[in-house]
Amino acid sequence: MALGDPQEREVAASQRGLRVRDDGAETRDAPARAHQCRRRRVLPALELGHAKRHEVAIEKRTAAVQHGEQQAVDLRQRGLDRIGIRAARQCQRIPGEAIEAERVPDALERGGVAGGEQLLQRGGEPAQALDDVHTLETTGSSAAREGGCCAHRLENRVEIMWMRRGQHCASPWPCLTLPRHLGGPLRRSALVGAALVLAACSRPSGPIVIGLAGPISQARGASMLRAAQLAVDQINARGGARGRPLKLKAVDDSGSENTALRVAEQLYADPAVVAVVGHLSSDPSKAALRVYGAGRTPLVMVSPSASNPDLAGINPYFFRICPSDVQHGPQLARFAWQTLAARRAGIIYVNNEYGRGVRRAFDGEFARLGGAVVEADPYVPETRSLEPYLSRMRQRGAVDVLVLAAERPGAELALREMQALKLSWPVIGGDALTGIEADGALAEGVHVSSAYLPDRPEDRNVTFVADYARAYPGQRPDHRGAGAYDAVHLLARAIAEAGAGRQAIRDYLAKVGRGKPPFEGVTGTVAFDTNGDVPGKQVVIGVIRGGRLVSESGH
Fold it and tell me: Model confidence over 414-470: pLDDT tens digits?
């Protein structure tokens, strides 16, 4: 949970539960009530006496904060882990009623902070002496660069940030503010503020949740779900990420923009979800990004197959495993020109982000090569017949190739009506045709562009295909499943190296291939550019033979 402004992190003197004066005498004030903590669960008074003079066990000190709705926290049972030390960057007032302390919860890992160390044991509670604690050098000029306020104070502060052991939160961590130089009677001890505010994090050691969004009730989405679950199972069998298991939260967006918007709102609102694999196609992805990339805690989205070029750069929280149509369209055009010797093309395209993207990319490259598009006709998914388009193409002069910038249902409709009209043009299309091989003879000989084919010879892919077949007998992965599989493994690597925070994951992904090593997946090398695209990925041409999509030799 968020801790608010620096001023809100302090607990006033009237709220302190226990003070230890330099002479060792103890005074007690009323502890804070829950309603005084601005809706935050706060441990108001973790004050620790001088370890050499005050034999007061930590659990006795925490008993002082049992009041109202507040429960005491036994630090012996709920140890604190030090998660970072840094120079203070904000103007924070050290409470006037400071105490003398040489004892802190758990061992202090100093990481660059100079000073002697001595482990103490009191009542079974590990502690560590703080001997002349110093910050890293933070000059006035560097402090000014980091915020420009109270530079003279920033020179003399260090923040020691704590969290409850095993917990992870995306919000700022609470901290103790210590002075850099200590003098007088406090020379050999640390000046500790009168309160330690602890974030009331949830899910201390539960699974790390990754959202999965796509048309999972449809065949194309089922492939995505199966492969993503296979990846999760494999990762968990190896111990998970950062010692925690992964868990999928799969939600069906039906391939619809409106549904995708609602799905995105649901996943965004769930604080357990740290990233999303999805959405499958371009229109739902564009709609969902309006949610994922907004608000105070944006959520990163990694699409396995949304390929419209217009998605590039529209939101810094969008990444995709697949190449865009900027690569698919030109590859189809070159194949038509060079391999099929086509000079006149007809295009039928679904009138959405995907179809328009493939049409534009093909048209531009085919014209550059010297070819001509004699007709380009759009359709909507509800269209019941494409026969008028096909008949008009035949009347205007035979085309050398028919380009189907379509999704599977539209492509099946076109192929059936071509058979009825006895048209035998070569047919090529983008990766949205994947799955049409199940239609057998109807789709025989159709060429499909794809960034992934299951017969790729690389060892990594051979293993993946075999594992997939064992997990799902009779099934073969397609580019959507392979992309989802890679996306989950990539997110697991990001979590393992950067943590499970939403922003940390996004920042890690932005560096993959640019500061961080590229990710080698079953779909090839993933290295993102500044738009979240993978420009280095190669598009290949496959052909449907005997009910399977296989590599076309030489392409």
Answer: 999 999 999 999 999 999 999 999 999 999 999 999 999 999 999 999 999 999 999
3-state secondary structure 270-301: CCCEEEEEECCCHHHHHHHHHHHCCCCCCCCE
Residue 190 has pLDDT above 90, yes or no: no
pLDDT of residue 465: 98
Secondary structure, 3-state, 325-341: HHHHHHHHHHHHHHCCC
DSSP letters, 422-434, are T----EEE-GGGT
- Residue ranges and CATH numbers for the domains of the chain are 6-192 (no CATH), 208-323+479-527 (3.40.50.2300), 325-450 (3.40.50.2300)
**The token pair that represents 235 in the structure block:** 């990762």
Instruction: Specify the DSSP element, H or E, that contains 490.
Output: helix 479-498
Directed axis angle between helix 325-338 and helix 353-369, to 10°? 40
192 pLDDT tier (thresholds 50, 70, 90)? very low
Backbone angles phi, psi at 539, to 5 degrees: -100, 130
CB-count burial class (<10 Å; 0-12, 13-18, 19+) for 205: exposed
What distance in Å separates the CA atoms of residue 461 and residue 482, rounded to the nearest whole number? 9
Asked whether the CA dihedral 528, 533, 535, 538 is positive or negative, the reply is positive
Phi/psi of residue 192, each to 5°?
-110, 135
Report residue 38 as tokens. Answer: 């601005």
Span 346-375, mean pLDDT? Answer: 96
**Mean per-residue pLDDT of the chain:** 73
Q: What share of the chain is helix, strand, coil (3-state, %, to 5)?
A: 35, 20, 45
Enter the pTM of the model: 0.64
Exposed/middle/buried for 463, CB within 10 Å: 0-12, 13-18, 19+?
Answer: exposed
CA 152 to chain CA centroid, nearest Å: 39
